[in-house]
Amino acid sequence: MIAELSDIWVYLARDPLFGLTLTVLAYLAADQVYRRLGMHPLANPVLWSVVALALVLRGTGISYERYFEGAQFIHVLLGPATVALAVPLYRALGTVRRQWRGLLVALPASVLVASLGAVALAGALGAGEATLASVAPKAVTTPIAMGISERLGGLPSLTAVLVILTGILGAVLGPPLLSWLKVRDPRARGVALGAAAHGIGTARAFNESPETGAHASLAMGLAGVLTAILLPLAWTLMG
Amino acid sequence: MLPMIALLLVFQLAGEALRHALALPVPGPVLGMLGLLLALALRGAWMRRRRADGAVVPEALERVTATLLEHLSLLFVPAGVGVVTHLSLLASEAVPLGVALVASTLLAVAAGGLLMARAVRRRAS
To answer: How does the record classify its membrane topology (chain A) (predicted)?
Structure first.
């Protein structure tokens, strides 16, 4: 009986379906916990499903390559999902027309501080080149950040984790920081959270008010586009 | 539904092709997103000129994008798990990365919030 079970296990672990199924189940479980905990940023479902899956791979000795043979069927959807971001961005264009003066200053400032600030600090503290290229796009939404990281010679999977950690930091520390700085306008709070902490900051902004959330999702989209254009240029200029 | 999935893929493919043809540093899917945004803006302008009824974003496109974006977070997981292949790098550079993430995130929130608040106040007064 035990031998048969282990035979089945050996067979299943080799099947690409295993990585695919495990990913969806881990995410569903993490998402349930996240909802139960009132969508607290620290309970972020991506972070915890990544941690859980990493532990499973380590415990079972399945290599990442084998896991990815199945999980890639989810991964390929990132491209079309990035293109799909055009629809919410199109909806938000009315806000751009009303707020363009503020956005024109606040967004580039936030984008440059987030990316070049992180690169300068990590570089000064001795991080290597691949790490610097991986941390540079950490403030923007994951699909865009991973694309930029790849273009800069970074490690897209490291970027994915850094992006999520940034989102959690921004969502947890951002609102108290903004209150301490006496930034009370919902539009300003939304832009700050969306530009610096992408989707996770945007989810937090929607907890404050719909207006804050709408400005956050707009800022997230524009910051992503802006970073995708500015950062590779800055990278080339800096050599 | 299927035509709209094809539409997203065509825009992505066009973005990749444009990136390769012009050797652009911007990721292909981002160019695809900008292309779709431009297409929607043009369609909106055209519909306003014709005073045409109906939504600028076709309902089928709406459904497909809503489905994709509703579970957007799931799509990051396979790549995120790849961090297991960089654990030693992550451990040896944990301090520079930790400091850089916390400090740059706080500064970016402060910069975005203060500048936007100032612009909003100016416009009101």
So the answer is: Multi-pass membrane protein
Task: Based on the fold, state whether residues A57 and A115 are members of the same structural domain.
Answer: no
Spatial distance between the Cα atoms of A103 and A218, rounded to a whole number of angstroms: 10
Residue to substitute from B19, B57, B77, interface A, most A β-carbons within 10 A? B77
Residues A38, A117, single domain; the answer is no
Q: Is B52 in the A-facing interface, judged by CB distances under 8 Å? A: no
Q: Per the structure, how many domains does chain A have?
A: 2
- Interchain CB distance below 8 Å, B105 and A170: yes
Nearest CB among A83, A90, A119 relative to B8 is that of A83
Clarify whether residues A119 and A203 are in a common domain: yes
**What is the tens place of the pLDDT at every residue in A165-216?**
899 899 999 999 999 999 999 999 999 999 999 888 888 888 888 888 888 9
CB contact, 8 Å: B47 with chain A? no
B83 contact A CB<8A: yes
Which of A53, A76, A99 terminates a domain? The answer is A76
Residues A107, A72: one domain? no
User: Is A140:A223 a contact under the CB 8 Å cutoff?
Assistant: yes
Number of other residues whose CB lies within 10 A of the CB of residue A234: 17
B99 interfaces chain A, CB cutoff of 8 Å: yes
pLDDT in tens, A31-71: 999 999 988 888 888 889 999 999 999 998 899 999 999 99
Asked whether the beta carbons of A235 and A134 are under 8 A apart, the reply is no
Contacts of B53 (CB under 8 A, 6+ apart): none
Residues of B in contact with A162 (CB under 8 A): 97, 101
Q: Are A173 and B108 in contact (CB under 8 A)?
A: no
What is the complex's ipTM, to 2 decimals?
Answer: 0.90
Q: Report the alpha-carbon distance of residue B35 to residue A155 in Å, rounded.
A: 27
CA distance B51 to chain A (A): 19
CB contact under 8 A, A50 and B77: yes
Residues in chain A: 239
